[in-house]
Write a structure and sequence with these properties.
Blueprint lengths: L2 E3 L1 E2 L18 H14 L12 E2 L44 H10 L3 H9 L3 E3 H15 L9 H4 L2 H12 L6 H11 L8 H16 L4 H15 L4 H11 L8 H12 L9 H11 L8 H13 L6 H14 L5 H14 L4 H14 L5 H13 L5 H14 L5 H13 L7 H15 L5 H13 L5 H7 L2 H8 L7 H17 L30 H15 L6 E5 L5 E8 L5 E2 L9 E8 L13 H12 L3 E6 H4 L5 H12 L9
Helix pairs in contact: 1-6, 2-4, 3-4, 4-6, 4-7, 7-8, 7-9, 9-10, 9-11, 11-13, 13-14, 13-15, 14-16, 15-17, 16-18, 17-19, 18-19, 18-20, 19-21, 21-24, 25-28
Length: 659
Amino acid sequence: MALITLRRNLCHLSDFRIHGTLAGLKTQRVNCVHKTVKEHLCPWFWSLQLEPVRVRFHHAHSKKFHSENGNDLHPVGEPVFSQAHAWDRSEHSVKNVDEQIFYRRLNSFTSSEQVLHYISTLQTLPDTMAAGALHRICEMEKKDDDQRLPKEILENSAFQALCNQFAQDPSNLSNTGLVTALQALTLYVGPQSRLLLSLLAECQHRLAMGSLDIHSLCILGECLIKLQGPGCSTLDLIIYQLQGENLEEFTPEDIVTLYRILQACPEKVDQHQTFLHKINNFSLSVVPNLSPKLLSQMLTALVVLDQTQALTLVIKLGKYVVRHIPHFTNEELKEVLEAFIYFGYNDRFFTEALEQHVASLCLTLDPEVVSKVMEYCSRKLIFSKPILNAVAETFVCQSEKFSPNQTAELIEPFGKLNYLPPNASALFRKLENILLTRFNYFPPKTLLKLLHSCSLIECHPVNFMAKIFSPYFLQQLQGEESYLDRLSLAQLTQLFLTAILECPFYKGPKLLPKYQVKSFLTPCSSLETPMDFQLYKSVMIGLIDLLGARLYFASKVLTPYCYTIDVEIKLDEDGFVLPFTADEDIHKRVALCIDGPKRFCLNSKHLLGKEATKQRHLYLLGYQVVQIPYYEIEMLKSRLELVEYLQRKLFSQNSGGHW
């Protein structure tokens, strides 16, 4: 490991004084380095009269610094630095700069100037620490659209000395110092920089010799992906060497880096699946040591690599995610939610932690995260009043922050989960104002889904029905396709039925018959939940016992109004049950809604919006609607109790029915 000495007012950068075994590497080598850095790191880098600095190298054995618990970050793996030991001294001795104190201080700095000032006070700096300082500077200065470091950083004498240490003789650098310096330079320096190419060449030489340790292989792999893309042949060699290593020797940071490397080439997932299976199984042991950032990165990699067979790992990650929810950044929380949506994961403790987090910080959360939280609740049918209320309040206060798509993602779950928040009037008044001013900014299908969701909770979009039933909008909705998709047609049909049944004052255009579906119960695009077959069998047995024969009720009856009734019973004027084949003397029709668990929100007795709308519409169409929920059937202990239960439901004193 090389040591760098930073002493002021002794000599110029061009006057290198080299001691020990490097005495033969004098002026000629240094002048070459000066030229390289001058030409490719910064055009004005060497045009200034620099503050005197002397750089001195010493040999030492390479040393790896890693976190033991997975939460304290080591100097080169993560772009944040270790905070392992409390530091109570500020000792700048050449040979006694404590590594832990150094990285603790680096992590505490908030600007590059502070880092540069700190390292300028040190007499000697090992190459690993110098690389860590360089990485920290580049990380803090990194801008999304800026590929150059600020001029004042490039002209800083301490920064120049850091760069010169790595440019002088890369072969004398430790593995850790070499790959960390390369990693830092990939943040800013172009791929054609001679300094970067020099470090990369040395890395490739050591790779070919098999002298890179596990951590260095991982860092080099990520650098190559950024510089040359996931298709570079050298990356295959790195993965091959990593496959030959004992996973027990990987730190938690290395495991996650390995996932990120494999994530960069998902097209090769079949080729690496055996290796991935080993990593997935081993990762179960490192999950407790992962930081919030590493947890989100591992989940994201599992999604990209489509590791649906690693559900045991996903479940364990989910348990530890609960502990870290308050510590996730907006981006990390979004990635966690995306992964849970992808894998279909849900957990009561995660929901509770998410409720507390959203309720306390919703006004400060990024709109994209708020939308993702709502998507998660919608996909998993999680009926959470704290989340829904907090999001409704956020939208009322900060609606201008949400894009049209985010607005739709935020509002749709209210309809799907059949919930009106306490501030519903303010919420939908705000939504109406947005639609009036930005109607044309909403993609047609997004707009249709949004308005349909509003109708499910009886917030009928009357002011916009004329627009969505117009030929112009229907043409936009169809786009370049030869026909409209089945789900859009079903939503249009149900909106039109809503206008007829619940908005009699609507006098606008009607939906043309060619855009109307015959049934809302269709595969993949259904506005009804199919009947639970096992629950239906139980109810059917009780009905036969009650009515005397299977002849007196019909199953899965498609009405002229597109809804499918689970069980229909016909009554005459005196309330007697008629055979289901009867077409005359029908005075009343009874619609039994046999509601299984899938017609309710998750782990609740709260009916979904589409099922509540169906029952509401059937009632408005003249049916006597009788709900048979699964949780009531499950309470019955005998066949006799079932018959008595059905008798009470169907033939109560108010119903006037007989059998």
